[in-house]
Amino acid sequence: MTHKKHILKGASIIGSASVVTIIISLFKVKILALYVGPVGVGTMGLLMTVLSLATTIVGFGINTACVRELAHNNKPGKMSLIRRSVNLVNVIIGFITILIVYIFKAELSILLFNSDSYEIEVILLSVGVLLSLISSAQLAFLQGYRKLKEIAKYKIYSAILSSVIGLTIIYILGNKGVIYFVLSLPFFSVVMGAIYSKRLPSTGRKIPNMKEVLATIKPMINVGTAFMLAAIMNETAKLFVRKIVNDNIGIESVGQYQAAWSISMTYIGFILTAMAADYYPRLSKSINDSRRTFLNVNRQLEMSLLLASPFILILITFSNPLVYLLYSSEFKQSGLILKWQALGDIFKIMGWSLGFLLVAKGKGLQYFLTEAAFSVTYVMLINYGISNYDVEITGYAFVLAYFVYLVLLYRIVKITFRIKIARVNVTTFLVLFLVSSLVLFTHYYARYLSYFIGCCAILFSLLKAYYYVSNSGLIPKSITRKISV
C-alpha cells in the first residue's frame, strides 16, 4: 500500500464516520434550536464549554499523552500497564472532582450562572467530567492501537444514541432538559467505549499498585501538563468570548455566535478528526526519523488542504442559506460570522498539521506558546472591537488570531525540526486563501457574483480533490473509468 493510499484509507474510515456524526449533529442542533431558540442554544454552548474546560483542567493531558506512549511502545505488558494505570487515575480524579464540586456547589452555581439555583446542574456537570475522562481514555486506547474501524463505530453509535435520548429529554423538559442533553454524549460514549475496548488485547484483572501507577503516569503528566495548559487556555478563551458577548450584547448574541461556531467546527472537524485519529500515532512513531517525518507532514498537509477546500468554499459561499437551513431565520448574524470563521479555518488546517509535530515530539512549552498566541489574540481583539463591530467581531478576530498562530507555529517548527513545507502545499494554501477571500469580499458588494465565483471555485476544488483521491489508488480503476466516461 502506497504512503498516500495509507493516509487516505485511514482518513476515509474516520472521515466517513465524521460525515455520519455531522449529519446527526446538524439534525440534533436543528431540533434543539426549534424547541429552545437562541437562548437554549447559548445555554448549551455555555454548559458544553464549562464541561470541556473542567475535563481539561482535571485531566492533566494524560489521555493525549497516552496515545503517544502507546504508539511508542510495542511490548504487550507495557501497553497493558499503561491502560490499567490511565483507567485507574481517571476514575480517581473523576470521583475527587465530584466530591469537590458537591462541597462548593453553591459557589460554583453563582460563579457560572450568577444564581444559586443551578446547584443540581453544577453537580451533574461534575458527573459529566467523570464520564468524559473515562470516554477520552477509551478513545485514546483505540487510537493508540490504531483501531480505526472501531473508532468509527464508536463515534457513530455514540452520536445516534445521545441524539435520540437527548432530544427526547428536550421534548419532555424543554429548556430544563438542556443539561441532560449535554450529558447524553459523554454517557453513551462511555457505553460504546466499553464495548469496543473489549476488542483490544486484554489487560488482565490485576490492579496495578500505586508505585507502578506513578511510575507509568509520571512521564505522561510531564508531557501532558503543557498540553493541558494549552487546552485550558483555549477553553477559557471560548468562555471569555461568550462572557464578553453576553455582557456587551446579550445571551441571544451568544446564540448567534454559538451557531456559527458549531457549524464551522462541525464541518472542519471532519478533516481534523480524520487527521488526528491516524496522523498523530503515525507521526509519533516516525518523529525521530527526519525523512519519514517530512514525508508524513507534507502528505498530510496535501490531503488536508485538498479535501478541506470544497467544505471551506461551501461555507463561505452559502453560509446564510446553511444557517437558515440548519437553525432558523432568527440566526441572521450567524451567516456573516460563519464566512469569516471559514476563512480563518484555512490557517487553522495548515497549522493543525504542523502543530502535531510538537505534540508527537513532546515539545510542550512550544505547543503551549502557539496555542496561547491564538487564545490571547482572539480574546483581546473581541474585547476591544465588540463595541464597534458588534458580534461580527468574533469572525474577524478568528481570522487574525489564527494568522498570528500560524506565523508563530511555522517559525517554531522550522527552527526545531528544520522541516520545510513542500511548494505544492504552499501553492494550494495561497490559492485557496485568495479565492476564498475573493468570494467573501465580493459578497459585500455583489452577492450574485459572489455566488457565481464561489460555485465555480467549489466545482474546481471538487474535481481537484477527486483527481487526488483517484490517483492514490484508493478508488478502483473500473469506477474511475466509468466516472471519466
From TrEMBL:
Primary localisation category: membrane
Topology relative to the membrane: Multi-pass membrane protein
Keyword Membrane: yes
Transmembrane region(s): 7-27, 39-65, 86-104, 124-142, 154-172, 178-196, 217-233, 259-280, 301-320, 340-360, 367-387, 393-412, 424-445, 451-469
UniProt keyword annotations, A-Z: Cell membrane, Membrane, Transmembrane, Transmembrane helix
Pfam families hit by this protein: Polysacc_synt_3
Gene Ontology terms: cellular component: plasma membrane
Residues annotated as signal peptide: none
Subcellular location: Cell membrane
UniProt-listed InterPro entries: Poly_Biosynth_Transport (IPR050833)
Protein's name in the database: O-antigen translocase
Protein's organism: Vibrio comitans NBRC 102076
Classification of source organism: Bacteria, Pseudomonadati, Pseudomonadota, Gammaproteobacteria, Vibrionales
